[in-house]
Structures are given as C-alpha cells and as structure tokens.
Amino acid sequence: MESILVSACLLGEAVRYDGGHKRCDSPILLRWLQEGRIVAVCPEVAGGLPVPRHPAEIAFGAGGIKVLENNASVVDDSGWDVTKQFVQGAQYALRIARSKMIRIAILKEGSPSCGSQYTYDGSFTSARVAQPGVSTALLQQAGIHVFNERQMEEADELLKSFESGETPSSC
Questions:
Q1: pTM for the full model?
Q2: How many Cα atoms sit within 13 Å of 44 on the Cβ side?
Q3: Spatial distance between the Cα atoms of 113 and 119, rounded to a whole number of angstroms
Q4: d(CA 32, CA 80)
Q5: How many helices (DSSP H) and strands (DSSP E) are in the chain?
Q6: Burial of 18 (0-12, 13-18, 19+ CB in 10 A)
Q7: What is d(CA 131, CA 63) in angstroms, rounded to the nearest whole number?
Q8: Over the Cα atoms of the chain, what is R_g?
C-alpha cells in the first residue's frame, strides 16, 4: 500500500508559525487516514524552528529551487535568516519520503516550505510568486509528485494509477 506524505498542519496539528493549523477535511484525506496511508511532516518544525515563530518568506521571490542552490535565503519578518532550518527540514521530509518509498505528497499551498503553485515574495505584503517552497522543490527534484490541499482528486487519481500498475500520462 502506498503511503502519502502530508503537511502536519493539514491534519490539524498546531505547527504553523502562528501556533495554529489549517485542517483539511477532504473526504479523500479522511479516507487515506482511515487506510493508514498518511505520513505527517512539518518541515519547518523538523528543521528546528519553534511553534509559534515569526512568519518567514523566501527573499526576493526567488523560490525554493534558488534556496537549495544557495542563491537565495529564507528570512523571517524580524530579519532573521532561517535558510538553514528550512533546508534541514526539507532534507528531513525527503529522508522520510525515501524511507517509506513515498511518491505522492500533499503539502500546504503558499508556505515557504510546502507551497507548490505559489509562495510569497519576501516583502511580507501577501504578494505571491509562482515559485515552489523549499521542501516542495527538493521533493520534486527527487521525483515525488507534490500536490496542494486543493488537488486531492488529482493526487487520488495518481495514487490509483500507481496502485493499478498504470503509468500516469502526465503530472
């Protein structure tokens, strides 16, 4: 049975920067929980950041790939550089995924760690950029299919194709 990596905040765990969560009540996610497929991760906490913590963004809208290449940094709203913690958290998420042979992840959209379709531009003004977060970038580089909480149906279809032995046409 395939396991699925899921952002802990989507499961109701109070790990977000503000001490809250972003529980997702998708019937698909609930089914996966009942089936015992879910492996929870919060890369930021795994990287050593506390709860609560200052909000962080990738500077200059550079995105997670540039962070992994050492060409950009992640800073919080007090100016503290938290790049090291974000990279360590991403590496932890990848180790967990590899150890469980995970091929699908559902991560929190917009997060500087977990965003897949967008993150914020580093100005702390809610301006979005079409760049992945640090963990998403690392997982994608390793061939893991990353979806956000609004893409459960797509992830479920990919899961079904994996389990049926079909090769997905595109992702």
A1: 0.95
A2: 31
A3: 9
A4: 37
A5: 6, 8
A6: exposed
A7: 5
A8: 15
Residue 166 reports pLDDT greater than 90: no
In the numeric block, the tokens 């909480």 are attached to 149
Write 47-53 long-range contacts (CB < 8 A, 24+). 47/84, 47/85, 47/86, 47/87, 47/88, 47/89, 47/90, 47/92, 48/85, 48/88, 48/89, 49/82, 49/85, 49/89, 51/14, 51/15, 51/16, 51/17, 51/19, 52/16, 52/17, 52/18, 52/19, 53/17
Q: What is the pLDDT of residues 78-121, one digit of tens each?
A: 999 999 999 999 999 999 999 999 999 999 999 999 999 999 99
Distance CA 7, CA 161 (A): 22
The two tokens of residue 53 are 């913590």
User: For residue range 117-135, what is the model confidence (pLDDT) as tens digits?
Assistant: 999 999 999 999 999 999 9
What is the C-alpha to C-alpha distance for residues 135 and 123, in angstroms, rounded to an integer? 20
119: which 2 tokens? 């993150």
Reported as a single tens digit per residue, the pLDDT across 29-60 is 999 999 999 999 999 999 999 999 999 999 99
Q: What is the dihedral of CA 60, 66, 72, 75, to 10 degrees?
A: 70
Please give the Cα distance from 70 to 72 (Å, whole number): 6
